[in-house]
């Protein structure tokens, strides 16, 4: 499936799309409603110079822009935890290898075997994460969470949105609210599409299909 066949040209002009593990095909064919809502979110996103000059983390207004669009559609942030139940089955007789009794002779529970995995937005079996300006190691956490959800059968596909390299053209010409070069805030070791793609190329997402999206400079209203 070609990206240009299922993504409007207006979005292609503003974002970069990278398809891993047939994520796009899964979204289009299995989750058309969620895919439509994600495209609507991307279409409505507008960033100002004031938005990108504010400090990252909880102070940034950019994550709230996604909240305002996706929450009315029923997307929610979630966290999962789970225990692992282990059962040990004895062999039926001392002579018959490979044949085991139906009842375990011992069970044990490993509490907190899965814990602390957060996803910014989840609807049905589509996971969505936004990383605007965090340390790039945050991508490792996101991909681990998505592959864990996938391995547990809780999600079928993940979407991660982050900055494209093209935004640097704006950052290099602006100063922050303290008069310092804005590019210092958006360094090479922060979350941007280049830091995500090499992790996906090395399959840190495991078996979870991922659609990676880079926010382009065209999203910023100057």
From TrEMBL:
The keyword Nuclease applies. Keywords: Endonuclease, Hydrolase, Nuclease. GO terms for biological process: DNA restriction-modification system. The keyword Isomerase does not apply. GO terms for molecular function: DNA binding; magnesium ion binding; type II site-specific deoxyribonuclease activity. Transmembrane segments: none annotated. This is Restriction endonuclease.
């Amino acid at each position: 499936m070609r990206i240009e066949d299922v993504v409007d040209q207006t979005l292609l002009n503003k974002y970069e799309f990278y398809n891993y593990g047939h994520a796009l095909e899964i979204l289009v064919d299995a989750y058309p409603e969620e895919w439509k809502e994600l495209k609507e979110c991307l279409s409505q996103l507008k960033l100002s110079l004031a938005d990108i000059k504010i400090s990252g983390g909880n102070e940034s207004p950019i994550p709230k822009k996604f909240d305002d669009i996706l929450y009315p559609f029923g997307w929610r942030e979630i966290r999962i935890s789970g225990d692992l139940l282990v059962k040990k089955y004895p062999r039926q007789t001392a002579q018959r290898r490979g044949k085991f009794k139906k009842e375990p002779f011992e069970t044990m529970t490993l509490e907190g075997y899965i814990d602390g995995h957060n996803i910014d937005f989840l609807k049905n079996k589509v996971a969505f994460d936004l990383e605007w300006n965090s340390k790039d190691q945050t991508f490792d956490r996101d991909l681990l969470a998505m592959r864990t959800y996938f391995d547990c059968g809780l999600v079928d596909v993940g979407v991660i949105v982050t900055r494209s390299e093209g935004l640097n053209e704006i950052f290099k010409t602006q100063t922050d609210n303290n008069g310092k070069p804005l590019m210092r805030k958006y360094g090479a070791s922060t979350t941007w599409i280049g830091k995500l793609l090499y992790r996906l190329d090395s399959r840190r997402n495991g078996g979870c299909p991922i659609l990676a999206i880079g926010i382009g400079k065209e999203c910023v209203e100057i």
